[in-house]
Every structure is written in C-alpha cells, then in structure tokens.
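Sequence, please.
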C-alpha cells in the first residue's frame, strides 16, 4: 500500500500549503477515513492529519455490525475489505444468572482488525486524491478574532483551512459540547488458540459487576480472539479495572482460554456516550464520529456511526462550502439534524436497555428481566437479527 506522507522537511504553513489544504480532517479512524474518501471522490482538496503512524492498532472489539457493513457498501469498500474479515454469524448472550441463549443473525456481522480496517479506508482516500500526513498531532484549533475556526496548530506548524473536520475520536480535546459526559471505561486483550464452541460465534456476558454493561469475546482472523469489558466510569468496580478483568477471565472465559496464549498487552480506551447530538457544527468546523460522542449507549458500537457521520460531514462540506463564510447557519443545522435523525432513535433504544440493566429494582426481578430473549434482543442487533 502506498502512502502520501508529508515529511518534517516540508515547510508547513507556507502559502502553497495553505492553498492546498482547503479541508483539514483531524484523525484517520473510520470517521476521518470515510469523510476523506467521500470528499476526495467529490474532488475536494483534503488533508488528513493523524498523530499516529499507520497502520496503527486501535483498542476495539473490531466488530462490524450489519449497519457498519451497509456503510462499507455506501463507501464502495465491501469487496476491498472482504478478504480481511472473519464472519460472526451468531452470538451467545448470557445474563448475570447464567442463563444463555445462542442467536444466529439473518444478516451476520464481520470482525475486521482495526489495524487493517482503518488503514484500508484511509489508503483508499489517498488513492482517490486525499493527502495523508501521519505523526502530526493537532494541538489546538486556530480561531480568528471573531472566534471562527481558521485552521489548526500542529506539532509540525500551523495550517490554515476553509473547514476543519474533527474526527479525532474519544476523548476529543477539541469538543465544544459542555453537556455532562457519560463515560465508559474499557479494557481488553487478544489471545491465540482459544477453544470456541463455534468459530463464527461471539459472546456477550452481562455480569452484575459491570453495572449494566457487559464483557465480550469476538473471534478475529488467524485464530485470534479478542476479549474485553465495558463498565460505566462511575461504577465502584471501575476503580479496579485490571483486577476485575482478571476475575472475569478466570470465571467466565476459563474454558475458552484453557490452552490459549496471550498476544500482546491488555489495553484500555475510554468512550463517551451521547443521549443527544450536541454542538457538532460551526461555520468553519464540523465534528463527527466519537469526537461528536456518536457511540451506542447499549453496545458501545461506534464504527458504523463514525463512518456514517464522516460521510454526512463530507456531503455537508462539499455542498456549497463558501471558503470565506464557511457553512451557513442552515447548513450547520441540517448537519446536526441529519445526525440526530439517523442515530438518536437507535441510541435512545440502547439507553433504555442500559437503564433497565442498571436499575436495582429491575435487577431484583432476575428471572423475568434476564430472560434469554430480552438479552438476545440487544445482542442480536450485532449480528443483524433485529435493527
Ligand atoms: C474497548 C472498545 C471496544 C470497542 N468495540 C467496538 C466494536 O466491536 N464495534 C464497534 O462498532 N465499535 C466499537 N468500539 C467503538 C469504536 O472503537 C469507536 O467508536 C470508533 O473507533 C470511533 O471512530 P472515530 O474515527 O470517531 O475515532 P478513532 O477510531 O478513535 O480515530 C481517531 C483518530 O484520531 C487520531 N487523533 C486523536 N487525537 C489527535 C490529535 N490531537 N491530532 C491528530 N490525530 C489525532 C487518533 O490517532 C485516531 O487515529 C469500541 C470501543 C472501545 C473503547
């Protein structure tokens, strides 16, 4: 794969650079990559900046739901990505009482290691004309006297832009959303040689210690599995994350891991959930993906929403962006409304489920609440049994 890499020798901020970098995207995850690809196909001049060196590892279960696969279709990338995936056609959902249900999805999900998914998407964007500058950390959004975003300050210098798209994930240092954060902590690891009941089946385990959230196991290509947990950051158990993870591995995944070898170290990354779409648009700036808190409160699924919001941001940017005035108030409103309409119904349904799972009273109705079918409804969304 060929990368367009601007080296440190290039003088950033000189006139030639400034004119070329009409749209700057911060972050080359699925949000930034999908946005860059859509913009590049539309003929826009786009520069993507990422602090990492690609291909880079991302702390993620790497599960692509049917909705994520639909986004790959929109991007025209399903065939390109297909050789990198392992199918996940079913899930085993297990409640705190130990009740289990095995579900097969009509549509099926894929697991594609993020190290490959993200570099393939951004690679396609580069192939279509986007410029990708790695190992460049954006430190601030540059604002003019009127408070309008006019560019970015980076570890390598200042760059001006007509529009800056923040796709820098969670936690975003550039977010303007002042509403309370609802944070999730995570920890996960990878193993080789795990014994699975079915090679194409994932696991979701709702355990009381996870305070309404769950532990998961997803199969990856090449005989690897990833296992992790999600837990609200305000949960008392979140303070002993590593010890809790070890307890769960010993108690819940002992059979699967009996003959398995760990691959690499455990890793963690926070997620911030949204119950509404906040301030995601200004005249010269848009936010998408996790930088806009677009993550499902129930499953912490975010790849599909990252790609979808990246595509929507690209469409907003390529439809009549006035370089001097930027996006009009109506265009900004349309962007926010479009994200709300597409994503919020799914997020609210998810939040209702989590509230139920966190409720003391509800938990005491163990047999009714944790009936396999109820758990299955959530888990089944991952493999496409319901939407
Ligand atoms: C443990 C865990 C498991 C998950 N599992 C799943 C799953 O199985 N399926 C699913 O759909 N979702 C999952 N998610 C959610 C998913 O990982 C995210 O929602 C998704 O990565 C968001 O994509 P993004 O492009 O918005 O941000 P990211 O993928 O986080 O990309 C942001 C990019 O911005 C770059 N960046 C950050 N700051 C700067 C800066 N200042 N300057 C330059 N570059 C910068 C980073 O290097 C990174 O490459 C999981 C999340 C966690 C934490």
């Amino acid at each position: 794969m060929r990368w367009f890499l601007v080296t440190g020798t290039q003088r950033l901020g000189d006139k030639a650079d400034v004119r070329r970098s009409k749209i700057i995207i911060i972050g080359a995850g699925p949000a930034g990559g999908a946005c860059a690809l859509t913009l590049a196909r539309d003929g826009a001049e786009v520069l993507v900046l990422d602090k990492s060196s690609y291909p880079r590892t991302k702390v993620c279960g790497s599960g692509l739901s049917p909705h994520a696969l639909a986004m790959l279709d929109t991007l025209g990338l399903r065939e390109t990505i297909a050789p990198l995936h392992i199918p996940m056609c079913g899930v085993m959902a297990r409640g705190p009482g130990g009740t289990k249900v095995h579900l097969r999805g009509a549509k099926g999900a894929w697991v594609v290691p993020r190290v490959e998914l993200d570099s393939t998407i951004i690679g396609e964007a580069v192939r279509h004309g986007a410029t990708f500058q790695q190992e460049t950390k954006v430190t601030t959004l540059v604002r003019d006297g009127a408070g309008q975003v006019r560019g970015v300050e980076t570890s390598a210098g200042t760059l001006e832009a007509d529009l800056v798209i923040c796709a820098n994930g969670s936690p975003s240092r550039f977010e303007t959303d002042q509403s309370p954060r609802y944070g999730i902590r995570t920890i996960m690891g990878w193993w080789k040689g795990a014994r699975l009941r079915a090679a194409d089946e994932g696991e979701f385990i709702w355990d009381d210690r996870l305070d309404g959230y769950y532990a998961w196991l997803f199969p990856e290509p090449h005989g690897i599995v990833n296992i992790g947990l999600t837990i609200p950051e305000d949960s008392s158990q979140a303070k002993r994350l590593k010890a809790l993870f070890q307890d769960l591995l010993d108690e819940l995944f002992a059979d699967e891991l009996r003959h398995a070898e760990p691959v690499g170290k455990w890793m963690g990354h926070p997620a911030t959930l949204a119950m509404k779409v906040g301030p995601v648009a200004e005249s010269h700036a848009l936010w998408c993906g996790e930088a806009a808190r677009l993550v499902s409160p129930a499953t912490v699924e975010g790849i599909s929403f990252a790609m979808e919001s990246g595509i929507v941001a690209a469409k907003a940017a390529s439809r009549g962006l006035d370089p001097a005035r930027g996006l009009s108030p109506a265009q900004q409103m349309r962007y926010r409304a479009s994200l709300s309409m597409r994503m919020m119904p799914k997020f609210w349904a998810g939040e209702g489920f989590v509230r139920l799972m966190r409720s003391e009273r509800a938990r005491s109705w163990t047999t009714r609440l944790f009936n396999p079918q109820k758990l299955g409804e959530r888990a089944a969304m991952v493999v496409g049994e319901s939407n």
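Residues 184 and 232 are 4 Å apart (CA to CA).
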